[in-house]
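Appendix B, example 12.
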Amino acid sequence: MRKPNLFLIGAMKSGTSSLHRYLNDHPDIFMSGLKEPAYFAEEVNLGRGLAWYLDLFKEAGDAKVVGESSTHYTKLPTYQGIPERIENFAPDAKFIFLMRDPLERTISQYWHHYQGRRSGEVEKREMLRAFQEDQRYLAYSNYALQLQPYLDRFGSDRLKVFTLEEFRCSPQSWMKQLYEWLGVDNGFVPQSIGAKIHETPTLVTRRVRWLYAIKKSSLWETVRVGVPAPIRSLGERLSERAPIERKAVPVDEAIRFARPILQQHTNKLSDLLGRDFPEWKTLWDHA
């Protein structure tokens, strides 16, 4: 059975889904069909077992690079001990960390939770209160905090760190660099280059949690074929509230609260990596 030797570890809401596809386009790279298996986050994989995990890579064939993408691997303090588990499993692995303007990333995470994506967890608080009360929002944008354990354990040579903003300026050049770093043909151009996946829509909807839970249950999967189409359509509409325009929601107070904290985090990141991040214009309030 093939084991992964590449981990795209984050950050959440920073373009990892698109990068996962670009990597998988390469004939010498196999990325798991399931993004976010989160196997090494014990609270998430629910004991599904090593056989389940390795089965994700059974079609890797003779690919030189075998990888997976799980942003849960850089979500301290929620999930701990992940670098140690990966080292025990794949001691020679490489890691990619793609990061985004931390203020924009934090806001995007809020809208992600507002819609109840994947887990059905629905954010009901206003943005300012959510940022004040839930440490995850700002912690997941504390890139120095997230990177330090990997740098300590694996060293900088095994970790490729760059920003979504610089990647967007020259995606083909960056893919060339990544392919070269991974030891595969760097002249290959991904067919999907430029495609954006899981981009937060302008109009967002908030799910009605109990209806959404029914919709995602195994019981519904069993009985849905016997439910008339008009009733299924009604259930779809009722499972989500009326959409709202993101730009119409006031965010100034939340930004004023988060910006100085995230600027401090970024100063630590600059010290850690030996570079500045002028491309993060929202963070520095540069129009």
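The mean pLDDT is 88. The longest helix spans residues 252-273.
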